[in-house]
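note to self: dont lose this again. the chain is below, predicted strucutre after it. 143 aa total, dont forget to put it in the shared folder this time
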Amino acid sequence: MKADDLREAYLAFFESKGCVRRPSDVLVPRWDPSVLFTPAGMNQFKDHFLGKCKLEFTRATTCQKCLRTGDIDNVGRTARHHTFFEMLGNFSFGDYFKREAILWAWEFLTSHNWLGIAPEKLSVTVYEDDHEAYTIWSDEVGL
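---
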């Protein structure tokens, strides 16, 4: 699968779950003096998270162009280090929560309508104190 196809599948999947597709925000957010570059997909929603504005939607999906420089000295030395990437994201603004996020992630990865990855080829990790997520993964997904 090509990167363009994966990106489009991800965005289309979350649109099918009622998310509004938002375009990538600018890479240099002049409106945000706390960052030089956009470091994450949530950056365009920062004012909402801070209570400065209210959005017209409660669900969103994005492919955000991001630039991070924290490990810039390693760029070119390893295949893993880079500065620019596109971050796929789905956001709930008080609308859906952990259960839906987990079940939808699993559906996107394993459903033959989407990526169709064999479940036995996948594994998940759960934060040790997150008993709710563990229960969802074990009891509902069956891992």
